[in-house]
Amino acid sequence: MPPASAAPPAIIAVRDLVLEVDVGGALAQFVRDVDLAELCITSAGTVRPGAIPSGAFTLPDVPDIGVRVSPAPGERCERCWRVLPEVGQAPDHADLCCRCAEIVGSSNAPVRAASPG
Ligand SMILES: [Zn+2]
C-alpha cells in the first residue's frame, strides 16, 4: 500500500468513480447498450439517452454528449478493484464483489490481488 500522500495509480483512481453520460441527438441510439463501466474502467457507468442536463461537462465540438463524474459508493474489491456497495456481502469472501466471489468460489483458486478485469 503506498503512503497516504502518494497519488494512487491512475487505474485505481479511475476505479473509484461513477461515470454518467447523457447522450442526445442521433448518437443516442448507437450508445444505448454500451457497458460504460467496462469501456471506461470505472466502478459503474450509465448511458442515458436524452437531453443533456445543466452542469454536465460538455465539449464545444460535441454538444450531444454530457458527462458527470462522482465518487463510487462502497468498498474496493481486492480482485477487480471496482468500488461497489456489494463488496463484503458474499459469504467467505469479505474483500470481493459478488462477481469476483462467484469466480473465485467456482475455481477454488486462492484469492489474490490481480489486474482489473
Ligand atoms: Zn470484484
Can you lay out the helices and strands and say which pair or pack?
Blueprint (H helix, E strand, L loop, with lengths): L9 H6 L1 E7 L4 H4 L4 H5 L3 E6 L7 E3 L2 E10 L3 E2 L6 E2 L13 H10 L10
Parallel strand pairs: 1-2
Antiparallel strand pairs: 1-4, 3-4, 5-6
The chain binds zinc ion.
Provide an overview of this structure.
The protein has helices at 10-15, 28-31, 36-40, 98-107, and strands spanning 17-23, 44-49, 57-59, 62-71, 75-76, 83-84. By secondary structure, it is an alpha+beta fold. The chain has two domains: 10-71, no CATH class; 75-107, no CATH class. A four-stranded mixed beta sheet has the order 2-1-4-3. Strand 5 (75-76) and strand 6 (83-84) form a beta hairpin. The mean pLDDT is 84. Bound molecules: zinc ion. Residues 77, 79-80, 82, 96-97, 99-100 line the site of zinc ion (ZN).
Provide a quick synopsis of the model.
This protein has 117 residues and is an alpha+beta fold.
Task: Give me the count of strands.
Answer: 6
As for the number of domains, it is: 2
Q: Give me the secondary-structure category.
A: alpha+beta
Oligomer: single chain
- Assign an overall shape: elongated
What is the terminal separation in angstroms? 20 Å
Helix count, per DSSP? 4
Largest sheet: 4 strands, mixed
Q: Which cofactor or ligand species appear?
A: zinc ion
What is the alpha-carbon Rg in Å? Answer: 17 Å
Low-confidence stretches: none
Mean pLDDT: 84
The helical percent reads 10-25%
| Order of strands across the main sheet | 2-1-4-3
